[in-house]
Structure formats: structure tokens, C-alpha cells
Amino acid sequence: MSNLGLELKAPSPARARGRYRPLGRILVDAGLIDQADLVHALEAQRDLDAPLGEILVAQGLVSRSEVTKALALQHQIQQVDLDADPPKPMLARHLSAEASLHHKIVPWRRMGQTLFVATSRPDTLHTLTRDAFGNSDRDIVPVLAEPAQINRQITALYGTELAKRAAERVPPHESCRTWRVAGPRRRIWAAGVIFVASMLFALLPAVTFTAFVLWALFCSTMIMTLRLSAFLARCLWGNTPLPSDPTAPSLPTRWPKVSVLVPLLHEEEIASALIARLSQLSYPKALLQVVLVLEEGDQMTRDTIARTELPFWFDVIEVPQAGKLRTKPRALNYALEFCSGSIIGVWDAEDAPEAEQINRVVQHFDTAHKNVACVQGVLDFYNARTNWISRCFTLEYATWWRVILPGVAHLGLIIPLGGTTLFFRRAALEKLRGWDSHNVTEDADLGVRLARHGYKTDLLPTVTYEEANFRAWPWIKQRSRWLKGFLITWVVHSRAPLQLIRDVGLIRFLGVQVLFLATFCQFIFAPLLWSFCLPLFGAAHPVQTTLGADVFYGLFGYFLFAEILNISVAMTAVSGPQHRHLIPWAITLPFYFILGSFAAYKALYEFVVTPFYWDKTEHGVPHKSSPIGSKVPPLRPP
């Protein structure tokens, strides 16, 4: 049995003294590893940007606690248990939150002029005093603690301050947080619009109805033009746009640390399945940090995590409540401060990424131009066969991710990001100040802000499988949040339209109008287009009265053409072997999108009354055809 115990009975100044012993030699002498294990780990360290201890833990040779004890012996400093003996809150005044986060340290004890500071990286002691404490006349003495304990104590000491900062990271002119939630302005505008529309319908019903129909057709034309252009671009130039840098891909000289944020809320069944899926990742675990982000007070998720044995490369960060705001982007902003990777990713709780996904992302960033700040993967569903809604949802997703979005990228338009399978260069993400905590589609908003700041987003053909929402009301709730966020994003970035044109150019400015405003309006005014079916039931249409029968039938033909185009594009998107069984279901998509109009009206109401309300999507709903934790299908062409 090995003995790495080191305990100082009372806090006392401790300095490294005597002959310095390498960490590997300490572990070999303790009998925890042999010389061959050490040589193998040192060889691996040539390619991995990770400490030796993390590599040995990843190889399953030692535990993290054994490495911590060995580090205490190596540097001859005291090891402390911050959970059992936490620092007093009053000590927070001796160290700023920024310094605590940057150096991953917390003040632990004070004895006279001596301040004991807990750290998990004693190898950085030579910079600790100078950078964190400046010209302080205090005697700074380090003690050693587990990294997870330090993170928990940072939250305990500075959590409220950090939570408030997470809610206000993005500059006001790029955020919607300046809106007053209960303010009367939006309600007055809404009441005014309803009043004017009602008066017009009362005084000039046929003319008013025709005007709304023409606006709906205009929005539909904008959407159809974009879809057709994207479809042709995808057919001409392929499914994936060329990388920003055409240099042949090569392996990085040293693989970097990657941190992936996984926000959780009210998750009861998803934890074990999530761990099983992410354990299939082939990226070196010594360089992988998966951060499970919990909300304070979410006892359900906390209990789920507590009864789950997490791998060493998982961290848990609990976001303190500060005010009434509780959104995914606020949680992401808070947890970003605790990430240690130079690449930051985002997955959802139900996601099942391909095993090689992170390897491909890292390789892409290594060869891409420096202004490529984001890589967006492809999303797909693993429960497409559950029922009619899940089949149509999969058709819609395949159309967007495998046809429209690659075409949009080929056309050089702004890519509205999805909420998962996103990877960022950390430096660029921090320069943009993270996510807008008040925007309920923080991903799409961030895509626009990336473009406005001169960054690019590349699409990468690596797939993450997730759970399709297959129940009508949860589908409407989820879609209403997306549509509300699209409207919020359009309003935020259209407050100064000339500046937006200067930032992104006229073509991409028009793309923003189509992708955000026209998409929302299309669902809002869709019932007016359905009215073209009235003559089929023997009823007259108002357009026949105002514009004449010839114009009506011309518009009716255009409406049919648009529907046929949508169905044809969807069939093309699922023509590959994986989703070919969905082709017959494409003809039912017009009925599926009826749900979208219900979602749009819900979104419009919430935009006026509760713009920042986050309607949580429930994950992990059991169904016999969508087993949680099932094997992820391989990537195939569409």
C-alpha cells in the first residue's frame, strides 16, 4: 500500500524546501505507477497540452486525490479540504473575483499578516503573488485543494457578484436587456396595432384582408427565394462549404484543452444517458472538460447528479440566483468563467455527439483562418420514427441543416447558430462578451454578433443526435421560444439599420431581414395563405373581389408552387439511406407547419408581455422507439 499522506496540524507558513522531486518520481516511489507507465505518460504529454497528473488520471493509473497528495509532497505544502473547512466569507475582500477566477484560487485563512491561499496548481506559485496580490505587504502562503472544491468556494465567496455580471456581459447596445419587462411601451404599441387593424377591418374589410394577404405573400416570396437560392447553391457547390483556409488539414502539434458546457434544468432521467454518450468521445480525456451547469434551487437535477458517479473529466457548476432572470445564456456566461479550455463548446442535455466530433473541431480550428471564431456542427434526431410529429420534425431539421444552411453559407449570408454543437475560440467568445443573457435564442443572436464583429462561422459535417420533440404542446412551447427569440434578435439588430449595413454589408443585411423577420411573419400570416383553399369549398375569397379572379388564381398557383418547392427540398434532404423512409411523409409537412402558427401567436403574446421568459423544453421523455442512451448511428450523407 502506498502512503502519500501529508498533514500539517495547524495552518503555518510552508515553503518548498529540500531537493525538488518530479511528480512522476513521487508516484513511482509510492508504488502507484511503474516506470513504464511514467515513460508512456511523458511520451503522451508531448502531444497533449495537459499536466502529467491529468494524463495519468485519464489513463486510469491513479486517482485525482492521489495526484493531489503527490503534489502536496512535491511542493511541501499543506493539503486542505475546503468542503469540510471552507473559508469565511469575510476573506473575499482580500482577493477580487477576477483574480480568483483567473488563477483558480481562494483565500482560505488569515493569521495576522499571513494569508493562506488555496490553489490546485502549485506549479504556478511563482506568478501567484505578483499577479493576484500585486504589491501587497501580506505574506502569501499557498495550500493545496481539489479543483472542484476551489470552484465551489469561488461560487460561495463571489457567486452573487459573478451571477450579476453574467446577466450583463454583453454591451447594452447589442443586448435586449435594456427593455423594461413590465414597461408599457410594447403593450401600448400592441394595443395601437390591434386597434388600427380592427378599425381597418371594420371599415374596409376586403381591402384590408387583401393587404395582409399581399404582405404574407411577400414574406413567403422572401423565404422561398432564400430557400431556392440556398438549394441551388447547395446542389452546385456541395453539402459543406469550402473551409476558410484551403490548406490541407493536418494534425495539431499539441492537442488543446476543450471545455464543453452542458446546461441542465429540471433533468431527472438524462444524466446517466448523457454520461454514457459522452464517454464514447475519442478525444483525450486529459484534455476534455465537460461542465454540467445547474441552476441554484434546482433540487431535481442536483439529486440526479448526486446519485450519479461522474467521470473525472466532468465538473459541476451551480449558478447562483441573482434577480428573477433564469435563462440558458445566463448560465452559459456564468459557467464560462470556470472553463479551462481554449476552445469552448456547447451541447444540450439530450445530445449524442459523434465519437470523433471534438477531434474534427480541433483539427478544423488548427487549419482555419484566425477570423473563424465558431464551428457549427449538424443536428439530427435519433427518435425520428416515434410518431408523425417526430418524422416531420426530422424532415424539417434535415432540410435546414443539410440543405438550406449549407446553401446560406455558400451564399455568404450570416449563419444563425443552433443552440448546440457549437464550438468557439475562447478568445473571440470572450471578446464578444459571451451570450446575451436576456435573449431566448442566444445562439442566433450570437451568430449575428459574430458577423458584425468581423468573425466567420464555418460549418463542419459532424453530427450530433438529439431528441425530437414529438408531442404537440411541448413542440409549440419550444417553437414559440425560437420564434420569439428571432423577433427579439431582429429588433435588437435593427435598432440602427444603417450601422448594421455598415457592419455586414447590404446583402447580408437583407439576409437578416429574411432569416429573422420574414420567418416570423410567415408563421403569423400563414392562416391568410390557407384561405386560398376557400374556393375549393365553394366560398368566395376576398382577393377575387378586390383584385379580380385572374390575379387570385395566379396567386393561388404561386401558393401551390411554394408548397411543392418546400416538399421537394425536404425530399431531397432525406434522400440518403439514413432518412429515406421519411420521403413519403414530406407531403404532410403543410399540415405539420400549422403548429408553427399556434407557436407564433404564443411567441407574439410573450414578446409583448414576458419577452425574457424561457419556456423550458423537457428532455428524456421515455418512448419505446427512442431509447435514451441508445447507440448513435454513424454519419451518412443526406
From TrEMBL:
<feature type="transmembrane region" description="Helical">
    <location>
        <begin position="582"/>
        <end position="604"/>
    </location>
</feature>
<dbReference type="Pfam" id="PF13641">
    <property type="entry name" value="Glyco_tranf_2_3"/>
</dbReference>
<dbReference type="GO" id="GO:0016757">
    <property type="term" value="F:glycosyltransferase activity"/>
</dbReference>
<dbReference type="GO" id="GO:0016020">
    <property type="term" value="C:membrane"/>
</dbReference>
<protein>
    <recommendedName>
        <fullName>Type II secretion system protein GspE N-terminal domain-containing protein</fullName>
    </recommendedName>
</protein>
<dbReference type="InterPro" id="IPR050321">
    <property type="entry name" value="Glycosyltr_2/OpgH_subfam"/>
</dbReference>
<feature type="transmembrane region" description="Helical">
    <location>
        <begin position="400"/>
        <end position="424"/>
    </location>
</feature>
<feature type="transmembrane region" description="Helical">
    <location>
        <begin position="509"/>
        <end position="532"/>
    </location>
</feature>
<keyword id="KW-0328">Glycosyltransferase</keyword>
<keyword id="KW-0812">Transmembrane</keyword>
<dbReference type="InterPro" id="IPR007831">
    <property type="entry name" value="T2SS_GspE_N"/>
</dbReference>
<keyword id="KW-1133">Transmembrane helix</keyword>
<feature type="region of interest" description="Disordered">
    <location>
        <begin position="619"/>
        <end position="638"/>
    </location>
</feature>
<keyword id="KW-0808">Transferase</keyword>
<feature type="transmembrane region" description="Helical">
    <location>
        <begin position="552"/>
        <end position="575"/>
    </location>
</feature>
<keyword id="KW-0472">Membrane</keyword>
<feature type="domain" description="Type II secretion system protein GspE N-terminal">
    <location>
        <begin position="76"/>
        <end position="162"/>
    </location>
</feature>
<dbReference type="InterPro" id="IPR029044">
    <property type="entry name" value="Nucleotide-diphossugar_trans"/>
</dbReference>
<feature type="transmembrane region" description="Helical">
    <location>
        <begin position="188"/>
        <end position="218"/>
    </location>
</feature>
<dbReference type="Pfam" id="PF05157">
    <property type="entry name" value="MshEN"/>
</dbReference>
<dbReference type="InterPro" id="IPR037257">
    <property type="entry name" value="T2SS_E_N_sf"/>
</dbReference>
